[in-house]
Amino acid sequence: MLYMIVEHFKNQNPFPVYQRFRERGRLAPDGLEYVASWVDESFGCCFQLMETTDRELLDEWMANWNDLVDFEVFPVLVSQEAAEKIWAQA
Q1: Mean pLDDT of 51-73
Q2: For residue 31, what are the CA distances in angstroms to 1, 34, 40, 57, 58?
Q3: 39: part of which helix (H) or strand (E)?
């Protein structure tokens, strides 16, 4: 399953996040895969796409960062999969 994670940097300060990432890496457990990420131009938040078959791994990863980041988690579908599900229900 794909998850869109919206990371809100605490105190609108991305520096501690980037510093930890530089020193320790993504800190993702085995089975949680990074797909891609984007940061807004004001450096207030990051949009990160992650993939896993085990939702608990996502919680484990977020626990490594929740002192620096507030998270929103959205399970998402790729457009083709969404269209197939919509038309299957029609």
Answers
A1: 98
A2: 11, 10, 27, 7, 9
A3: strand 33-39
